[in-house]
Amino acid sequence: MDAKEILKYTEEKDVKFIELWFTDILGYLKSFTIPREELERAFEEGVGFDGSSIQGFVRIDESDMVAQPVPETFTILPWRPKERGTARMFCDILNPDRTPFGGDPRNILKRNLAYAREKFGYTFYIGPELEFFYFKNPEGTDVLDAGGYFDLIPRDEAIDLRRETVLTLEEMGIRVEYAHHEVAPSQHEIDLHFTDALTMADIVMTHRLTVKEIAFRHGVYATFMPKPLFGQNGSGMHTHMSLFKDGKNVFWEKGGRYFLSQTALQFIAGLLKYSPEICAVIAQWVNSYKRLVPGYEAPVYLSWAQKNRSDLIRVPMYKPGKEDATRIEYRAPDPACNPYLAFSCLLRAGLSGIEEGLTPPEPVTDNIYQMSEKERQQRGIKSLPGSLIEAIKLAEKSDLVRTTLGEHTFQEFIGNKKLEWDSYRKAVTEYEIRRYLPVL
Questions:
Q1: Which UniProt keywords are listed (predicted)?
Q2: Which of left, alpha, beta for 197 (phi over 0: left; psi -120 to 50: alpha)?
């Protein structure tokens, strides 16, 4: 619907409240609510707010910002009361002079998508798989079940939670492909049908809140924390990507290896080259690197193949007649990232491979985890950063990350991540107490 249709709809359906959504640079969802009576003015003028209170926005002496509702993101929130209902719209964040604010993650993604469209004619499509955990409450990690991958017996206590979540997402116009129990106890996955990257970033934010809202209504807690349970798989956001031009998937080629075009191979090469530099964005928390370790189905090494799930990049099997489904699956992001910034970095890393005419190394079909370090060195297999501070140092030197995020967000993001690492390294953990106190 456009703005005029939304105004008519909210009047006819008695939608009283409209939540205006946006994110800070870390991907925390922000919201404030206006009554229906203020909606027309919001469309015309935007809604002013204090940007100095939002992480990564502006200093206190430049605090005025404008949230401009985006009509095509309008949807009713099904978990709110039906009577005198509530809707939401995502917003573009503007400077007081109505120019796009450079620190708005949504605007950053729009800018990078425009680069791909204007230089190459490409549209970037994304289909993510979001994993998460249900716990009894946010104070601990008491699981709801002892199930494993695709398990139905022992009974999966979250069957009804997943069902209600899928129905709620579909009620908001979001297509779901799969929902199932994952490998770890009380771990689950809801996969989304692919769409353009900007729409998908909005959907990811909506997906995360919806999962949490449905869990809250049932008295449990849902988390997208990358690695909440020691000794168990962490939660990833495997991200399926493709590029389209003039309505055709440019990743597909009939005679290509794995049915991939030269463009797709160059995109893969770009991702492999720049993954260490963008890792601080796609895996942005201290806890993210507890997931990215060998042995838990999470990628560690810079490699690609078709069937090998220890690789960073996997090429799903081509099915005849399904050229549009040709894609690559990138396995490093976790579901706690900022999707606007993560998708931006993935796109620019892949495009850099095309621009530089890169060629990927040979696919790795062996289990890399079982190779010795010497074997990996001989085969030229490098690895992702092993900690947040390693990732920060690589990102800080990266022209690609700086260009992708823009100078403002680049400086704010790096500064915030350094503060997070500093707080973490000063903390005395339970592991240290157990390990050292009895013997030192």
A1: ATP-binding, Ligase, Magnesium, Metal-binding, Nucleotide-binding
A2: alpha
pLDDT at residue 308, as a whole number? 64
The CATH architecture annotation of domain 110-434 reads: 2-Layer Sandwich (3.30)
Mean pLDDT score, 59-74: 80
Q: What is the dihedral of CA 355, 361, 363, 365, to 10 degrees?
A: -150
Residues 6 or more apart from 300 whose CB is under 8 A from it?
A: 292, 293, 294, 368, 369, 383, 384
Instruction: Identify how many contiguous H helices and E strands the chain contains and give both numbers.
Output: 13, 16
Are 259 and 326 within 8 A, CB to CB?
A: yes
Q: What is the pLDDT of residue 61?
A: 43
Query: With bands split at pLDDT 50, 70 and 90, how would you rate the model's confidence at 156?
Result: low
Q: How far is CA 164 from CA 6, 176, 206, 210, 212, in A?
A: 27, 12, 15, 10, 12
SS3 assignment for 85-142: EEEEEEEEEECCCCCECCCCHHHHHHHHHHHHHHHHCCEEEEEEEEEEEEECCCCCCC
The residues annotated as belonging to the active site are: 50, 129, 131, 182, 189, 238, 309, 329, 331
Confidence bin at 367 (pLDDT 50/70/90): confident
Going 281 to 331 to 277 to 424, the CA torsion angle's sign is positive
Given this model, what pLDDT does residue 255 score? 85
Q: Establish whether the linkage from the previous residue to 154 is cis, with ω within 30° of 0.
A: yes
The pTM of this model reads 0.94
pLDDT at 60 over 50: no
Helices 105-120, 339-355: axis angle to 10 degrees equals 20
Domain definitions of the chain by residue range? 3-96, 110-434
Return the CATH architecture of domain 3-96: Roll (3.10)
Report whether pLDDT(176) > 50. yes
Checking if the pLDDT of 183 tops 80, the result is yes
